[in-house]
Amino acid sequence: MAPGIAGFSYQHVPVADGVSLNAAVSGSGSPIVLLHGFPQTHLMWRHVAADLAADHTVICPDLRGYGASGKPAETDGTVYAKRTMAADIVTLARALGHERFALAGHDRGALVAFRTGLDHPGAITHLACLDVLPTVDMWEVMRGVTAAVGFHLYLMAQLRGCPSG
Fold it and tell me: Fewest beta carbons within 10 Å, which of 10, 78, 90, 103?
């Protein structure tokens, strides 16, 4: 049996051509979507999600490329772009009956959440971006010791076709 969040139901929701997101859903009330970071899946929210489900409809998806969600082949540099993933989240929420929702993201999920707020402001009621630095600022200060501690970030910034680990 695959791990899951106790009390949550699971759905695979189509969000783009050939891409479905695995989403754990529970509760009732105002909707909140929780986005995981790297290298986690929706399970990172299991304790928080269970508590929030007492008062809210909680939606915890695996972002595209993670967990049990679709993993489309990268073809043109946009397949895993934050803008593309933001559109996935809005499509997911709408497919589950929510035109507007609160959104919280951690790490990579925070970058997707931020992009969602920029591209789809009418869909977001509240936005929380946790444990993340703006990407441009981060790359400007990554030198010396901070670059050594964050070496793995450079592995994800390789040109297409280069080995990354």
Answer: 78
Question: pLDDT band for position 146 (50/70/90)?
Answer: confident
pTM exceeds 0.90, yes or no: no
* CA 83/CA 91 separation, integer angstroms: 12
Contacts 24+ apart (CB under 8 A), 14-18: 14/95, 15/64, 15/87, 15/88, 15/91, 15/92, 15/95, 16/64, 16/84, 16/87, 16/88, 16/91, 18/70, 18/72
Kindly state the tokens that stand for 153.
């970030």
Query: What's the pLDDT at 157?
Result: 64
- Rounded Cα–Cα distance for residues 146 and 137 (Å): 13
Interatomic CA distance for residues 8 and 122, integer angstroms: 27
Domain 9-132: give its CATH code.
3.40.50.1820
pLDDT in tens, 11-35: 999 999 999 999 999 999 999 999 9
- Mean pLDDT computed over 45-56: 97
CB of 93 within 8 A of CB of 68?
A: no
Query: What would the pLDDT profile of 53-63 be if each residue is shown by its tens digit?
Result: 999 999 999 99
Cα separation, 79 vs 92, in Å, equals: 16
